[in-house]
Amino acid sequence: MTTKTITITESAYQILASWKEGNESFSQVIFRLGKKDKLSDLSGILTKKEADELENLISQSRARSARRTFA
Length: 71
Description:
The chain has about 70 residues and is mainly alpha-helical.
């Protein structure tokens, strides 16, 4: 496998290092965190009640935002 050397700040290194799990390499951390999940992977993670509550909270937040925007 070909490797590349990159330059990052010390603070970025510390953040990346804090994301490591077990004996993961930095490449493995980047692959894990950079993986894009499909929206369909989220299907079923909320119960019907949780989904209804979340939908209600979103609606309330949008209504408050609209009142601030058009007031």
